[in-house]
Amino acid sequence: MPIYNKKTLSRLLNGELSWKELKPIIGGKKDPERFDMVLEILQEKVPWNETILIPLHEHLFVVSKDNKRIVKCECGYEFGDYKENWKKKCRIRVRDTEDDIGDLYPKYMGCDPEWEELREFYCPSCFTLLDTETVPPGYPVIFNFLPDIDTFYEKWLGKDAPDR
Amino acid sequence: MNTKPIGWEKSSLNEMLQKSEKLIEDTGRYYGLEKLSLKKDNPFRYERAYASLRGALVTARETALHIAASPIVKEIGELCFALYTPEGDSLVVSTGILVHVHTMSEAIKFMIREDYEQDPGINPGDIFLNNDPQTGNVHTTDVQTLIPIFWDDELIGWAGGVTHQVDAGGITPGHDLVAAIQRFDDGMYYTCRKIGSNDAIWKDHMINARRSVRTPLYWELDEKCRLAGNLMIRDAVLEFIKQEGIDYYKKFIREAIEEGRLILQKRVKERLIPGRYRAAAFFDLPLKEEAWQPRAKVNKLTNEPLEIYVKEDGTLSLDFEGCSGPGPNPMNCGIGAMEGGQWVLLTQVLIYGDKVNDGAYFGVQKNYPLGSWCNPGDPYLSYQSPWGNLIPAYTAMMKCISYGLFSRGYREEVIPGYGFTGDAIQGGGIYSSGPLEGDRWALSTFEISGQGLGASAVRDGLDWGYAMWNPESDLGDVETWELFQGGIPYLSRKIKPNTAGHGKYRGGANYAGVAMIANSEDVDFFGARDGLVFHGAGGMHGGYPHSTGYRLIAKNTNMKDIIDKQEEYPIEDADPSNGQFEKLLQADITRKPWASIYPVMLENYDMVHFAMSGGPGYGDPLERKLESVKKDLDEGIYTPDLVFNIYGVVADYDHNKGEWFINQEATEERKKEIRKERKEKSMSFDEFFEYEKSKLTKSELSAPVKLMYSESLGLSEKWRKEFIEFWNLPENFQMEGK
Ligand SMILES: [Zn+2]
Question: How many independent structural domains does chain A possess?
Answer without folding.
Answer: 2
